Here is the input.
Amino acid sequence: MPGMNSGLTDNNSTLIAAFRTALLHQGLIILALLLVLGLVWFGIREWVPAARGPGHGPPSGEADGRRLLRIGFGVLWIFDGVLQAQPAMPAGLPTQVMEPTAAASPTWVQHLVNWAGTSWSFHPVQAGAATVWIQLGIGAWLIAAPSGWPSRLGGLASAGWGLVVWVFGEAFGGLFAPGLTFLFGAPGAVMFYCAAGLLIAVPDRYWRSPRLGRFILAGLGVFLIGMAVLQAWPGRGFWQGVVHGQPGSLTTMVTSMAATSQPHVLSALVSGFGSLVATHGFLVNLIAVVVLAGCGAAFVTAKPQLVRPAALVMLLFCLADWILIEDVGFFGGVGTDPNSMIPFALLIAGGYLALVRMPSAVPETAAPEPAASVPRLAATWFGTAGPRAVLAGWAVLVVLIGAAPMALAETNKTADPIIATAIDGNAAPLNFAAPAFSLTSQDGRPVSLASLHGKVVLLTFLDPVCTTDCPLIAQEFRAADTMLGNSQAKVEMVAIVANPVYRSLAYTNAFDRQERLAGLPNWLFLTGSLRQLEDAWKQYGITAQAESGGGMVAHNDVAYVIDANGRTRFELNFDPGPGTASSESSFAGELITDARHVLRSS
Amino acid sequence: MSRPKAAALCITAAAAALLAAACGSAQATAPHPGGAASLSTTVPLATSIVTAGADWAVLPMGGSNPSPDEFWELFVRAPQATNETTWKLATPPGVASNGGLVIAATGDKTAVAGFRPSQDLKFSPLAATPDAGNTWSQSALINPGLASAPDSLAVTTAGALIALTGQGQVQHASRLGASWTPLTSRDAIARTPAGLACGLASLTAVAFTAVGEPLLGGDCTRPGTVGLFTLVNGGWQAGSLTLPSGLGQQPVEVLGLSTIRGRTTAILAVGRGAATQFVAAWTGNGVGTWTLSSQLRTGGHTLIAQSLWPNGAVGLVLSGGHAATISPGKTWQLLPALPPQIATLALGPGGQLQALAATKTSFTAWQLTLGAAPHWDQIQATKISIPYGSSG
Here is the structure.
């Protein structure tokens, strides 16, 4: 999928440092907000007499099943948020999570995921940090708000964000890809988060009737029976541990999970199970099919005497699958959640509790006395809120503070300059007279540096028959020229040939056509005699060496920003990296930032 | 070719005769491989050519295909001038050769090499040498890039050039260094009566006839029709090559086309997949009567390299270590099992058959020793510095 890669390795130190800094700054703001909220709350309770009452804290009587889902999924979101803070996430999530997950899905799914991955790769630091805070915030929100509309809104937030993650991060949980199986996590762990969020969002009265429990269990039962059918379907590779000498589907999955970086004990356990599956694939699959179908059927009946043992068996099955097949899901540096078995087990337990343990009806709490003015009413309401409600409000702020920088970044079509900086370092500010050159433009006109006086010159060196870097650099210059907008007339984009052999006008013109630069009015691709070129290379510190054995001309990738008075103001390392959409945009943005700086100071 | 390489020609003929004796029991069918592999008639770029001034060989080295670590290399041997008997690396500098190399030579030491596009390079830079690869200079580029076929570039002794691009356009240049102008295209020829009769799918090779007129080879979808097209009085006409009735029900693709010293040689693939048979054809002037060879059944082996040499000699390398040669008036001769990693056949300074092997960084030349038990003897092993990572 093109575009998803920012071009940075997961362990790029610049990106990791920027990610940590962003998390630290946002974390400090969030802590400060908590402090302020706490002080205001204490202050109001101290100085507003009406606020000192029993308050409108959380009413008792929350259904056990709901509480389990709310707190369980709250903890899961917090855990997922912590996982998102792993250093590899900003660069690694699109390439190591999103792209592989969508690889087997249809093209339209890949395009959808590619769009999201590209958006992420344009602003990896903001996206990474936003995900951390949104998930931590939703988790805290669910835990802190036990009832009422704040709690139900928390459920909706959980379902909404879960849907985003399910579509873009899990490629619809692989629903449209071949090889769908419950054992590997179908239909995606976050789909269970969504279901739980919706259950938390339903009005409390539904939790006071066993109908909700029956509904939940019936839904889970039908789902499990469907998964059992899929698991038993012939020809899908699950019945054999080894097929024609090749590992079967389940064996492949288990052995690949065993290869993940993780504690030795766990990898040994998973490897051992992989061997068992390879030799007894039929038996393992038979057990899986029987358990799924049997428990599913029991859940559909919704009879407590059947549901209880089935739930127990299913919980054990989930635990075994989580450890032995899903390999607990979060090791390896870019694990985003503990996979599907834990949330599914929570849903089963929640459904069971909803069936067998309902709360008694809770009397309506009296509304606080109306105050004289709206501010006073608000202060009184806030002051009488319980500490958990304050925490819930703070959690909502965490979500918003996390999402805001990402939303702001998405309004900027230019990728974050951190990508270019992470690849090539910062531009070096300079201030000396740029070396003169006198060469020939692609249309045969003589061009010297002096003839460009009065314009800011963005200068680079390109090989017209280069197969990799130079076309990418040319595209970055082209993108930069577009970004210049009305300033185009004040800036000249100049490239000097960096090939001692292929340097005729025919080659510079062919390169211009190839890179769609031919129509740019402020684009110059300069060439000359070998002596003229060698002189320019020497002056600007360029080496252009033709290699033997069919290699490209080796030359350094560099760009200079020369001001209108002919003084070199910036030198940029300009190795374009992999030339992804985000890195190209980032380099172009960096070039324009420096050009504008020089334009302003000229 | 202005100056005949008399000794080489005689020895070539002698070699062919000797091969006939040495491998007389060989059947014109390569042994069938174990699996039911289907033949791909995609023409590989690996080849060798022989001229009066120098011998050239093109073969892939470095990494696997396709990858930025696969580099196509040009080797040269100029025995006439320097008594040189070993092959030397002569890949033109200044361009990455990952996409492939195509070579055409005028007959003396002058040659022109075209680089096929690779990665973000969309056109074909050309380099010319006047001294058998000692020095190279830029020549006029071809845009869009050359087709992936060893005979996508041809040159006359006078230096006129013709090229086939990857988009099916045919361009020509009056001399080395002159700019290219469009001559025709697959689409244009497909609309002519000759093209319609052939059901032209693609153009696959270009050459000049003995009188210097363009000659094009193509892939015909209409069974039994050979896609050869010559320019006569400004119009494209079908060549006069017809297949015998036994081959007339199968599609035919021209794999190679070359005119050397007044004789035009064509290599045809008749049929598809494992049933493909190779047939050589010769004519004196490219538009007159063609002589057809016997058929070489591939037995499912794929074509690794083809070489068209002076005097109408042809050498083919097939997968599985198989190789065969043929000359006009002879039948296909299967050669002893090739050494490993053979990329192409070539002719030695005395016309002996050679097999050139390329591994990652090793170039090895083997020579066929005739006798009661013909076998390959290693005559050269050279380490080549491959610029790994330079195109990645």
